[in-house]
Description:
Layout: E1 5-10, H1 26-36, H2 58-72, E2 86-87, H3 89-99, E3 116-124, H4 129-137, H5 165-170, E4 177-190, E5 193-206, E6 234-235, E7 238-239, E8 283-285, H6 292-295, E9 303-306, E10 319-320, E11 322-324, H7 329-336, E12 344-354, E13 361-362, E14 365-366, E15 374-381, E16 384-386, H8 393-396, E17 408-411, E18 427-428, E19 430-432, H9 437-444, E20 452-459, E21 464-465, E22 469-470, E23 473-474, E24 478-479, E25 489-494
Parallel strand pairs: 2-4, 8-9, 16-17
Antiparallel strand pairs: 1-3, 3-5, 4-5, 6-7, 9-12, 10-11, 11-15, 12-15, 13-14, 17-20, 18-19, 19-25, 20-25, 21-24, 22-23
Helix pairs in contact: 2-4
Region (Disordered): 249-284
Organism: Cyprinus carpio (Common carp)
Keywords: Disulfide bond, Repeat, Secreted, Signal
Amino acid sequence: MHSLISIALLFLGASLAASLFLPDSLELRQIMQRYQDELEPNGTKADVPLRSRRAIRWSDREEILQLHNKLRGAVYPTASNMEYMVWDDELEKSATYWAEQCQWEHGPKDLLMSIGQNLAVHWGRYRSPAYHVQAWYDEEKDYTYPYPHECNPWCPERCSGPMCTHYTQLVWATTNRVGCAVHTCSRINVWGEVWENAIYLVCNYSPKGNWIGEAPYRTGRPCSQCPPSYGGGCRNNLCYKVITHGNPERHESPDMNEVEKPQEPVQPWTTPTKPQPKPSFPQKPANCETKMRDKCKGAACNRYNCPANCLNKKGKVWGTLYYDVQSSICRAAIHYGIIDNNGGLVDVTRKDNFPFFVKATKNGVESFSKYKPGNAFTVSRVEEQTIDCYTTVAEICPFKASTSHCPRVFCPANCINEPSYWAPVVGSNIYGDGSSICRAAIHSGVIKASGGYVDLLALDKRKSYTGTLKNGIQSERYTSSALDSSLRFLSVTQFSGQKP
């Protein structure tokens, strides 16, 4: 007679489950061996470096991913915008962290605002992770799809069984990345009962699904409503991005088939990532003698923070309205009337080959004449604007030219808690212009969840950006196509100060 098995599934809810514990069974020993003591064919323990070990076997990872895409392409009614799903290492890392906690609940709580999550646990006879993925999908038998005419504007929830949210997350059309982990828990409390030596599966998804009042996908001919970024590609009824020059396919090796050894838990959003070059930030410190030619050799350094008491300093100024690049920036700003002797922020715009410079005495500063052509600059006041958590740079500061100036904005508190569906973050360090400014600033670490001032710099379009998990926010990655000519990028930096 086969050994009994207990299985539990969880997605933002709970249902009753019965369990039996088999203290010592052949199947239990086999599954423990599978995930803890992978052996070489000759019976000796594999000698592989710890740094290469993962919390999920490569074969299980591929099986999970392939099954997700197979099931997503087979939904009924057919989906017109179902995206092909890929594996995400950052989601796998965050799933690993949570699986190692051996808590039968969703978490970490701060991360759940940005990702979706499916959980499953069992003990006894061996079951592959794909077994649980199929069980999540099998909730489809209790789910009734809400057609467009039934959504006015919110779609009704129709689940005749205990739970359908595993299924809807699995087939949520815009969820295109998954990362999972498997961990053997010596003890885990499952709805009031302690299970020993249980196998715990955690799958994290991004962008998250299961938005209340929305259907999981659009109905219609497969791939007929794919996002433009897929360039018209379609594979097995899924929106698919064709990559002509990708990395060679990886193959399974022994060092991929062991569970990572226990180590000090690290929050996934503080995991060190590969350093990336940072753009020049717009706000630059300046003293009273700082010249335009000293600091600004590119369009990025176009905002300066002038100190107080520059009125009577020695920095010279040439010109009126248009100033020679050898002029003191801060004293030129006083001369023009942008700031007074108390200092402040100044925006600078370059102008090449100005024919001559005229002297004048204004606001206590005397400028000089220069009757020969030279490079010039103008100064302007820095605008301030209060925004909400959903405001994007495309709305307040679309890219126009390398001399574009964006206002200084003030972000409110608690934008970290806004869902990524309404306040997305696209990129890392450099962000898409459709990103929430405030959540991008939190993601980059320049402000905290309590809010604050942010300076922006609109940059020209780029071909791609990376997605990372930082400071409790999962950003999205993106590769543009020829149709994405409007994509722009921004950088963010903090300005010290309090909102008036």
